[in-house]
Amino acid sequence: MAEITLDVRGLEPPEPYERATELLTRLQSGQYLRMISPRRPRLLYPWLRQRGLCEDTRQRDEDLFEIFVWAEGDSEAGAAVKSVV
């Protein structure tokens, strides 16, 4: 399965960050993370850039964001993210 879903709604900081970074260290080729959050994970973005990970943040509602993360150069995962509506 290409998608790993992480719903962090209802979690208190820093738990969303900790769960996301733990999952992302185990990301395999062809996989991407879909993080569902009530806010933008601003502390996560620098961590992603430092590790060569790409992200696409989509605001679905006033307090609902989907953050897609995949490895730079992973065309399979990147294409899968782009196909998610």
Write the layout of secondary structure elements.
Elements (H helix, E strand, L loop, with lengths): L2 E5 L7 H10 L7 E6 L6 H7 L2 E9 L2 E8 L3 H9 L2
Parallel strand pairs: 1-2
Antiparallel strand pairs: 2-4, 3-4
What can you see in these coordinates?
- The protein has 85 residues and is an alpha+beta fold.
- The chain has one domain (3-83): 2-Layer Sandwich (Translation Initiation Factor IF3).
- It is built from three helices and four strands, in the order βαβαββα.
- The protein has helices at 15-24, 44-50, 75-83; strands at 3-7, 32-37, 53-61, 64-71.
- The chain has a four-stranded mixed β-sheet.
- α1 links the parallel β1 and β2 (32-37).
- The protein is globular and about 30 Å long.
Short overview:
With 85 residues, the protein is of the alpha+beta class. The chain has helices at residues 15-24, 44-50, 75-83; strands at residues 3-7, 32-37, 53-61, 64-71.
Distance between the termini: 18 Å
**Per DSSP, what share of the residues sits in E-state strands of 2 or more residues?**
25-35%
Low-confidence runs (pLDDT<50, min 5 residues)? none
Q: Please give the count of helices.
A: 3
Largest sheet: 4 strands, mixed
How many discrete domains? 1
Question: What is the name of the CATH class?
Answer: Alpha Beta
